[in-house]
Automatic annotation (TrEMBL):
Gene3D superfamilies attached to this UniProt entry: Acyl-CoA dehydrogenase/oxidase, N-terminal domain, Butyryl-CoA Dehydrogenase, subunit A, domain 2, Butyryl-CoA Dehydrogenase, subunit A, domain 3
GO-annotated molecular function: fatty-acyl-CoA binding; flavin adenine dinucleotide binding; glutaryl-CoA dehydrogenase activity
Annotated Acyl-CoA dehydrogenase/oxidase N-terminal domain residues: 27-138
Domain Acyl-CoA oxidase/dehydrogenase middle: 142-232
Alphabetic keyword roster: FAD, Flavoprotein, Oxidoreductase, Transit peptide
Name of this chain's protein: Acyl-CoA dehydrogenase
Pfam families on file: Acyl-CoA_dh_1 (PF00441), Acyl-CoA_dh_M (PF02770), Acyl-CoA_dh_N (PF02771)
Species whose genome carries this gene: Streptomyces bingchenggensis (strain BCW-1)
InterPro entries, per the entry: Acyl-CoA_Oxase/DH_mid-dom (IPR006091), Acyl-CoA_Oxase/DH_mid-dom_sf (IPR046373), AcylCo_DH-like_C (IPR036250), AcylCo_DH/oxidase_C (IPR009075), AcylCoA_DH/ox_N (IPR013786), AcylCoA_DH/ox_N_sf (IPR037069), AcylCoA_DH/oxidase_NM_dom_sf (IPR009100), Glutaryl-CoA_DH_mitochondrial (IPR052033)
């Protein structure tokens, strides 16, 4: 390369070493900027306190603000939804999780699980009733699939809905439900004599309760609940009419997992940035620790995995926008990016030393949050088996 050509190259950007921003359209950058600014104003100044207290105060107000941003159900079309691209939704998830996984979980469960289920499988009446106020954040939704004894094997769920005349009667329990205690509507999956069906359940229905789960050491700034249905009577039109079987909830989970592929890189970025800044200001042996080879090796490895993960997320987003994204590819992204995000957080903690465990810095908060992200929407083992089956053609689940 000639010296003149070298001089014409753009400068190296530590925040974007691969020039990934060149892949983004102006509208993509605008979405990212809007969500980043909102998170910086509304979440970051208070998130350490919320996390330490183990609560998310003002969640309904936050939901309405997210609705006004167009962040709720943003990749859905019509019914008050933004109709954003998959890449734009992913960028929003990245920025929200850079603030905290609990905030991104609020948005993911609202849009990619509860709203997505109604949008894809609901009747026109269900869509008209629920989606506009959910898109505005006026009604919060939750998604009931996991049970106390059945997580990775939803086909074995015990929650059951039986017909009683023209009504349905729903009985069972769901566990680890984000937004459950503050939701106005729950999408609940249950066994029926016809197979597994989804039900749109107003949470003020008699027999429905959602006790909050306390004493969490992860996702502390998030509402997590149990759902209890004790002979909840529902009208005939409460059932989602367009799907029967596990295809329904699993397609919703795939949409939510896609958001995690991006979101996990937000948590990783926050920890990397904290470590990079700390390495430039923390002095030992007479100079900043960023000047030592071992610290630079850590930072280089973190940057490589972080931006590889963002590239992977962008690639999957382009495939989703093109209608060619397969569930196995989402598993690929979720498995890789969450696993690498946790490693980036742990490495950042070592650079910060003892300060790494303090809530004055975001590192330990993100590290503990990611332990939940690693498990929900499919454990490491389940995604490994999804890929194993795709690679070999052999089913090792049973």
């Amino acid at each position: 390369m000639s010296e003149g050509a070298r001089r014409s190259l753009p400068p190296f950007d530590p925040a974007d070493p691969l020039g990934i921003d060149d892949l983004l359209a102006p509208d993509d950058l605008a979405v990212r900027t809007t969500v980043r600014q909102w998170a910086a104003t509304r979440v970051l100044p208070q998130i350490a306190d919320w996390y330490e207290r183990g609560e998310l105060p003002g969640i309904r107000e936050l939901a309405r603000e997210l609705g006004s941003l167009g962040a709720l159900g943003m990749s859905l079309t019509g019914y008050g939804c933004t109709g954003a691209s998959a890449v734009q939704y992913g960028l929003a998830c990245l920025e929200l999780e850079a603030a905290d996984s609990g905030i991104r979980s609020l948005v993911s469960v609202q849009g990619s699980l509860a709203m997505y289920a109604i949008h894809r499988f609901g009747s026109e009446e269900q869509k008209e009733r629920w989606l506009p106020p959910m898109a505005a954040g006026e009604i919060i939704g939750c998604f009931g699939l996991t049970e106390p004894d059945h997580g990775s094997d939803p086909a074995a769920m015990r929650t059951y809905a039986k017909r009683d005349g023209s009504d349905w009667v729903l009985t069972g329990r769901k566990m680890w439900i984000t937004n459950g205690s503050v939701a106005g509507v729950a999408v609940v999956w249950a066994r029926t004599d016809e197979g597994i069906r989804g039900f749109v359940v107003p949470t003020d229905s008699p027999g429905f309760s959602a006790p909050e789960i306390r004493h969490k050491w992860s996702l502390r700034a998030s509402v997590t609940s149990e759902l209890v249905m004790d002979e909840v009577r529902l009208p005939a039109d409460a059932v989602l009419p367009e799907v029967t079987g596990l295809r329904g909830p699993l397609s919703c989970l795939s949409h939510a997992r896609y958001g995690i592929v991006w979101g996990s890189m937000g948590a990783a970025r926050a920890c990397f940035e904290a470590a990079l800044e700390y390495a430039g200001s923390r002095e030992q042996f007479g100079r900043p620790i960023g000047g030592f080879q071992l610290t630079q090796a850590k930072l280089a490895d973190m940057a490589v995995e972080l931006h590889k993960g963002v590239l992977l997320a962008h690639h999957l987003g382009m495939r989703m926008d093109a209608g060619t994204l397969r569930p196995e590819q989402v598993s690929f992204g979720k498995l890789n990016n969450v696993r690498e995000a946790i490693e980036i957080c742990r490495t950042a903690r070592t650079i910060l030393g003892a300060n790494g465990i303090s809530l004055e810095y975001p590192v330990m908060r993100h590290a503990t949050n990611l332990e939940s992200v690693l498990t929900y929407e499919g454990t490491v083992e389940m995604h490994q088996l999804v890929l194993g089956k795709a690679l070999t053609g052999l089913d090792a689940f049973r």
